[in-house]
Design goal:
This protein is 85% helix and 0% strand. The chain has 10 helices and no strands.
Length: 208
């Protein structure tokens, strides 16, 4: 179960892009006081958590209703996570998020940005939603392992929340190059885990 927790935490940490969210969160909340910024961070994280949990369980039943097997989901999910890792490595995701920040700043309402774009898609984005469906579905017959997955999600969200609350200090004392380098290292690990999902899905599909 410890291994499940660690693997799940790494997947969530990278899929949410916990480190990469810091500069974008600062950009969206640059004109607010610290107390208000913390309120935005807390509310966004809570909303994202409930979205992810809801999607984890209802999403699986929806896929079953349309006849999509867990093996197919593993292959598709692995491909999506691989593309995410490539996006992070080549900074394509960063450019898309910068565009979203600019659009949000044009019509800034701090109550509105709590849900979009911070909770969705910065925290609970397509990659995070795919990840939690894969992990929960992977252990559908083992509730104790699902607990490890949920705890890993909560841990990743708490780390993200701490980083958002301390964003102004982090950016001030930690060079952006280090933040980008860390994101890329984690993206490389994500690529390896995504490959494993694809391999497992192919093996199960063809009974290899």
């Amino acid at each position: 179960m410890t291994a499940t927790f660690i693997n799940s935490f790494i997947l969530f940490f990278v899929a949410i892009d916990t480190i990469g969210n810091v500069p974008f969160f600062l950009g969206l909340t640059e004109d607010v006081k610290t107390k208000e910024r913390n309120r935005i961070a807390i509310k966004s994280t809570i909303i994202a958590f409930f979205i992810l949990i809801t999607f984890a369980y209802l999403g699986r039943y929806l896929l079953e209703a349309i006849g999509v097997s867990l093996e197919s989901l593993k292959i598709a999910g692995g491909i999506i996570l691989m593309l995410l890792a490539i996006d992070i490595l080549f900074e394509k995701r960063k450019k898309r998020r910068e565009k979203r920040v600019e659009e949000a700043l044009d019509e800034k309402s701090f109550d509105e940005i709590i849900v979009f774009p911070i909770a969705i898609p910065f925290i609970a984005g397509p990659s995070a939603l795919t990840t939690i469906i894969l992990l929960v579905g992977n252990y559908k017959n083992f509730p104790e392992y699902q607990v490890s997955v949920i705890l890993a999600l909560i841990s990743a969200l708490i780390v993200g929340l701490i980083l958002m609350i301390g964003a102004s200090y982090i950016v001030k004392f930690v060079p952006k190059q280090i933040l980008h380098a860390t994101s890329r290292v984690m993206a490389f690990i994500l690529a390896a885990l995504a490959t494993q999902f694809i391999v497992d899905g192919i093996k199960a599909t063809f009974s290899i």
